[in-house]
Amino acid sequence: MVNAIVYAVPVFVLVLILEAVSYRFLPDDDERGFEVRDTATSLSMGIGSLVVGLPWKAVVLVAYAGLYTVAPWQLPVDAWWVWVALFLADDVAYYWFHRLHHEMRVLWASHVVHHSSQFYNFSTALRQSWTPMTSLPFWLPLALLGFPPWMILLQQAISLIYQFFLHTERVDRLWRPIEWVFNTPSHHRVHHASNAGYLDRNYAGILIVWDRLFGSFQAEGERPVYGLTKNISTYNPVRVAFGEYAALWQDVRGATSWRHRVGYLVRHPGWAPA
Fold first, then answer.
1. What are phi and psi of 58, to 5 degrees?
2. Please, are residues 86 and 155 in contact by the beta-carbon 8 Å criterion?
3. Residue 109: strand pairing partners
4. What does the alpha-carbon distance between residue 151 and residue 88 come to, in Å, rounded to a whole number?
5. H helices of the chain, where?
6. pLDDT at position 1, please?
7. What's the pLDDT tens digit per position in 216-234?
8. Which residues of the chain have pLDDT under 70?
9. Burial class of residue 102 in the structure, from the number of CB atoms within 10 Å of its CB (0-12 exposed, 13-18 middle, 19+ buried)
10. Neighbours of 183 (CB within 10 A)
């Protein structure tokens, strides 16, 4: 099975170029635009993610297929309501995958890559993890519910393609009903911001209603400041990919008790013993 994301890459590149050109002819002092080294790092992370992700999809497919074969029922692929149910189930799975990757440091070590840029443009969307293995458990229940593996993978790809277009400062707020239901560039700018009032907000994939329902929604107000609360000082893709794992290992190894070691792994990023 070919990853649908690969087919979207030419579109990603074209849109990225158009966005960069727009800053040349329609500059905005309130927007950060692009920086060559930052963009090169983001593109390198995206290429690395594809290299790792394509063979990993084979492992994921086997895992989904194994559970699908023992599911109590197998849903029909030609029924419209199955596709609607899959859309909602995938979006809920993504919300909790995303939220827990912010709330548990061992998972954050993988996801922090995506937040490591201090710029916010379409190249930032391509700054993806090289350790996608942490996402597998969150979608396994969908296979047990009887959704065919290929449908799950397809819906995951649709969600990621949608989310690519959220990573821009060039699009202001949209029509209010759209902002209320869907994840938009405005909502996702909040998610990428390091402002105190914006931290750990707006985890949505496609539908922002999950954030409203589970109490993690924050509307965009003050101008976002992008990046981490403690920004990294490197453009080296390997250090970007694995730097937090190294820092986590140092904290775990230096802990004085097993309770503290477990705390470093499963507590919120930034946690330390009192």
1. -65, -40
2. yes
3. none
4. 13
5. 4-25, 36-69, 80-103, 105-111, 122-125, 136-144, 149-164, 176-181, 185-192, 209-214, 237-254, 258-266
6. 45
7. 999 999 999 999 999 999 9
8. 1-3
9. buried
10. 25
